[in-house]
Design a protein that fits this description.
Blueprint lengths: L1 H16 L2 H7 L5 E2 L2 E5 L2 H12 L4 H15 L9 E7 L5 E6 L36 H12 L4 H14 L1 E2 L2 H9 L1 H4 L3 H7 L12 E2 L2 H13 L2 H4 L1 H14 L5 H6 L3 E3 L2 E5 L2 E5 L6 H14 L10 H21 L10 H4 L2 H7 L20 E3 L5 E8 L4 E7 L25 E4 L8 E2 L18 E5 L2 E9 L3 H16 L3 H6 L3 E2 L7 E4 L5 H9 L4 E4 L4 E8 L3 E6 L6 E4 L1
Parallel strand pairs: 18-19
Antiparallel strand pairs: 1-21, 2-11, 2-22, 3-4, 3-12, 4-7, 5-6, 8-9, 9-15, 10-13, 10-14, 11-12, 15-16, 16-20, 17-18, 20-21
C-alpha cells in the first residue's frame, strides 16, 4: 500500500512540475502480447475472455464471453438487459458491424414522457419500467457467435455462469458502486433481492457477491440460445416485471427483437482506414467528419495539445456535433443524408470559416430545431484481439448507471433506461447539454441515437487500433483522441490513454479540458481565442488495443477507472 501511495505521490509531483511531453515520455511501456489480448472495464471479465482465447476460441468467442461476464461483474453497465454495438475485423480482412441497440416497445408513443400540459417528466424516462427499451444484447451475442464464432454458446457462457453461481469478491469500487445506487435499487423488489445485503448494511470490499437467479437465466440462454431470453420463462418474467413497474415491453416485442448487421462507416485519414459504427450510433459519422476537417486544417503541423491544436479540434467538433444532433437517428426510420454529411466537399465548406485566432460561437454554426435527448456516461467498452488476426470492439450499455434500477424478479438482471436517449421533448437539453431533433423522436420499434463509438483502424490494411469507451458524447472525442495520439504522435498504448483530453459538443458552447494537465499559457491562449474553457475531472473511460507489426498487441485500460488488460 505504501508503495502505491509513494508511486501516486511521485506521479503527482512529476505531473505538477513537468511539461506534458516529458511526462508522456516517462509513462511505462505497455506489456506486449503475441497470442491474444482483452481490454475491458473489469478484471474478471477480461480474464473470462482470456480463458476462452487460451482454450482455442477466437476473438468473437472471447468477446461474447466478456459481454456475458460483464453482465455479472459490472452490473451498473455490463448487461443482458441492455444493448450495444460491435465492430469486427476478421483474420481474412472482412469488416462488419452489428447493431444490437435496444428498440422502443411497440406501445411507445412520441409524447409518452410528457404530462397533460406537455411538460417533460424527466424521471419517467430514467427510472422504472417505462424507461426500458427492448433489450438487444442477447440477440446480438448469439447472432455474432453464430456468424463468426467457433465455440458453442454453452462454452463461452460458462465463465459468466460460474461467476454468477459461485460469486466473486467485490473490489472497493464494485462495493462503492453498489452502495452509491442502494437508495434507488431499494425501490424495486427485484433489485432489492439482488443488490441490497439481506441485513441492510453496506457492501464491503471482499464480500462474496453471488447471483443465483442470474446464473439460471444465463443457463437458459446457454441451452436455448435467444429463446432462452426472448421467449419462455425469461420473457414471461420480463413482462411480469413490466406490469409491476409500469413498463410496456410485451412478449411480442421480445419475440420480434432482431439485431442488424450494418455496413461500417469508413474514413480515410492519412495512411489509416477507420471502420466505425453507422447510425443509430453517431460515433462513426462524427469521427469521420472531424478527421476530414482536421486534415483540411493540417492538424499534423501543430504540437500535441498546444492551444492551436486544441482550437482546431474544438472547432471541428463544434461543427460536427451540430450536424449529429440535428440529422442523426435510427436509419431505418429517419432519412439520414449520410453521403452529404460525410462528403469532403461538404466538410471542407463546413470548416471553411475557421478562424485560427477566433472561436466560432456555436449559435452561428447551426440553428436547427431543438429537441432534447439524454445520454449517460455509465456505458462500457471492451476489445479482444486474437493470434489469428481477428479483432473485435464492443460498446455496450444500460444507459444510466444500473439502467432503470429495475431488476427482473427471479431472473436477476437489470433492465436498461435507454428510452432516455430519444428526444423526449423539443428544446430541453439533456444532462450532458446535448440537443437532439426530429430524427431522434420516439416511435414504436425505433432505435434511439447513441454516442457509443466502437472503432477499428487499419494501417496498410493491418489492424492498428481497436477502441471505444464510456462517457456519453465524450466517448466520441476520447476515442478520436486516443487514435490521434497513436496515429499522429506515435504514442504507445499507455501514453495514448494517459494523455489529457479535451471535449467540445457544440452546445453548451464550452471547451472542456481535464483539470490539472494543461498549462495556464495554453488555457489563456484558448480563452483569448474566445473559448469558454471549463476545467473538469475525467473525460470518458476508454479501453483500446494498439497493434505493432506482426500482430503484436499492446492493451490499454484507462487509469481514470478500473479497467483491466489480460493477454498472453
Ligand atoms: N446510452 C449512451 C449512448 O448510447 O450513447
Amino acid at each position: 500500500m505504501f508503495k502505491s501511495l509513494f508511486t501516486s505521490l511521485s506521479l503527482l509531483l512529476i505531473f505538477l512540475f513537468q511539461p506534458f511531453q516529458q511526462i508522456i515520455a516517462q509513462v511505462s511501456y505497455p506489456s506486449v502480447y503475441e497470442n491474444g489480448v482483452v481490454t475491458s472495464a473489469e478484471k474478471h471479465a477480461s480474464e473470462a475472455g482470456l480463458k476462452i482465447l487460451r482454450e482455442g476460441g477466437n476473438a468473437i468467442d472471447a468477446a461474447v464471453a466478456v459481454q456475458f461476464a460483464l453482465a455479472v461483474t459490472l452490473p451498473r453497465a455490463g448487461n443482458i438487459g441492455g444493448g450495444g454495438f460491435m465492430v469486427l475485423h476478421t483474420a481474412d480482412g472482412e469488416i462488419n458491424t452489428l447493431d444490437f441497440r435496444e428498440k422502443a416497445p411497440s406501445r411507445a408513443t412520441r409524447d409518452m414522457y410528457l404530462d397533460e400540459d406537455g411538460e417533460y417528466i424527466s424521471e419517467m424516462s430514467k427510472i422504472g419500467g417505462l424507461a426500458s427499451g427492448v433489450p438487444g444484447t442477447v440477440d446480438g451475442m448469439v447472432t455474432a457467435l453464430e456468424r463468426y464464432g467457433t465455440l458453442a454458446l454453452e462454452i463461452v457462457l460458462e465463465p459468466a455462469i460460474q461467476l454468477a453461481e459461485k460469486g466473486y469478491q467485490l473490489s472497493h469500487s464494485q462495493a462503492r458502486s453498489l452502495n452509491s445506487a442502494a437508495n434507488r435499487l431499494r425501490e424495486f423488489e427485484g433489485s432489492r433481492q439482488v443488490f441490497i445485503k439481506p441485513d441492510g448494511t453496506e457492501w464491503q470490499a471482499g464480500d462474496l457477491f453471488v447471483q443465483k437467479d442470474l446464473a439460471d437465466t444465463l443457463r437458459r440462454i446457454a441451452s436455448m440460445g435467444r429463446r432462452g431470453f426472448y421467449s419462455g420463462v425469461t420473457a414471461r418474467m420480463i413482462v411480469d416485471e413490466m406490469q409491476r413497474t409500469g413498463g410496456i415491453i410485451s412478449l411480442r416485442d421480445l419475440r420480434d427483437y432482431k439485431s442488424v448487421w450494418r455496413d461500417p462507416v469508413k474514413a480515410n485519414f492519412k495512411e489509416f482506414e477507420l471502420y466505425m459504427m453507422p447510425p443509430p450510433s453517431s460515433g462513426g459519422v462524427v469521427i469521420k467528419q472531424v478527421l476530414a476537417m482536421l486534415d483540411e486544417l493540417e492538424i499534423d503541423q501543430f504540437k500535441f495539445n498546444s492551444a492551436d491544436y486544441i482550437h482546431r479540434m474544438a472547432e471541428a467538433l463544434r461543427r460536427s456535433f451540430a450536424d449529429r444532433n440535428y440529422w442523426l437517428g435510427d436509419p431505418d426510420f429517419a432519412g439520414i443524408p449520410m453521403e452529404r454529411l460525410t462528403s469532403e466537399e461538404y466538410l471542407f465548406q463546413r470548416i471553411s470559416n475557421f478562424d485560427p485566432e477566433q472561436a466560432t460561437p456555436s449559435i452561428d454554426v447551426s440553428q436547427g430545431e431543438f429537441h432534447a435527448f439524454q445520454e449517460s456516461d455509465q456505458t462500457t467498452h471492451f476489445n479482444v484481439a486474437d493470434r489469428f488476426g481477428n479483432v473485435v470492439a464492443v460498446n455496450t450499455t444500460l444507459n444510466g448507471s444500473f439502467g432503470s434500477f429495475v431488476t427482473v424478479s427471479g431472473a436477476g438482471f437489470l433492465l436498461n433506461n435507454e428510452m432516455d436517449d430519444f428526444s423526449a421533448k423539443p428544446g430541453e437539453p439533456n444532462m450532458f447539454g446535448l440537443i437532439g431533433a426530429e430524427a431522434n423522436a420516439i416511435e414504436p420499434g425505433k432505435r434511439m441515437l447513441s454516442s457509443m463509438s466502437p472503432t477499428i483502424a487499419l494501417k496498410n490494411g493491418e489492424p492498428f487500433f481497436a477502441g471505444g469507451g464510456a462517457g456519453g458524447p465524450r466517448i466520441i472525442t476520447a476515442t478520436l483522441q486516443n487514435f490521434l495520439n497513436a496515429a499522429l504522435f506515435g504514442m504507445n498504448a499507455n501514453q495514448a490513454i494517459t494523455a489529457p483530453r479535451i471535449h467540445h459538443q457544440w452546445l453548451p458552447d464550452k471547451l472542456y479540458v481535464e483539470r490539472l494537465y494543461f498549462s495556464s499559457d495554453t488555457l489563456q491562449k484558448l480563452e483569448g481565442f474566445g473559448h469558454d474553457v471549463d476545467q473538469i475531472g475525467n473525460i470518458a473511460l476508454t479501453h483500446f488495443i494498439l497493434f505493432e507489426p506482426e500482430n503484436r498487441m499492446q492493451g490499454a485500460a484507462d487509469s481514470r477507472g478500473d479497467g483491466h488488460v489480460a493477454g498472453y
